[in-house]
Design goal:
Helices cover 63% and strands 0% of the residues. It is built from five helices and no strands.
Amino acid sequence: MKPAEIDPEYKELFDEIGAKIRELRDKKGISYTKIAEEIGISRNGYNNIELAKSNFQFLTLLRILKYHNISFFQFVDSINR
């Protein structure tokens, strides 16, 4: 299944979110396949989030942040604006 297309108006934001999520994962030294398994989503789904190719669900973002022990508000504050 092809991921939902991201509204061009929000593409830059999704790019920044994906990059920050990848940065968190890289700091832990864990593969995207492993974290996808840990939080209960497909590896392709997780990879698409990091690559900003997915209009992901908010709950998925919260599960990723919980895995990294970071609050949503900490995450938002850490994103380049």
